[in-house]
Design brief:
Strand content: 35-45%
Largest sheet: 5 strands, antiparallel
Order of helices and strands: HEEEEE
Mean pLDDT: 89
Distance between the termini: 52 Å
Helix content: 25-40%
Low-confidence stretches: none
Length: 75
């Protein structure tokens, strides 16, 4: 029973982090995240869902959990 409570607390914390990050973003922001193979991907936010954010990078569209994104500075 204790283990189930711990798992539930971790899930709630992940959900809270994802939603907090998603609320801080707006469509058009430039964000980055680490993609497959350790490659850093930078793109623009096109849509914000509850837990995921759609990021366009040139010809690729990524659906990324908001907790993995970091806002990047634009020059």
């Amino acid at each position: 029973d204790e283990l189930n409570q711990i798992v539930e607390a971790i899930k709630m914390q992940r959900t809270w982090l994802a939603r907090t990050t998603a609320r801080a973003l707006t469509v058009g922001d430039t964000v980055s995240f680490t993609g497959r193979g350790g490659k850093t991907v930078t793109g623009k936010v096109t849509k914000i869902n509850r837990k995921t954010v759609v990021v366009d990078e040139c010809f690729t569209r990524w659906k990324v959990p908001a907790s993995l994104l970091s806002l990047t500075e634009t020059a």
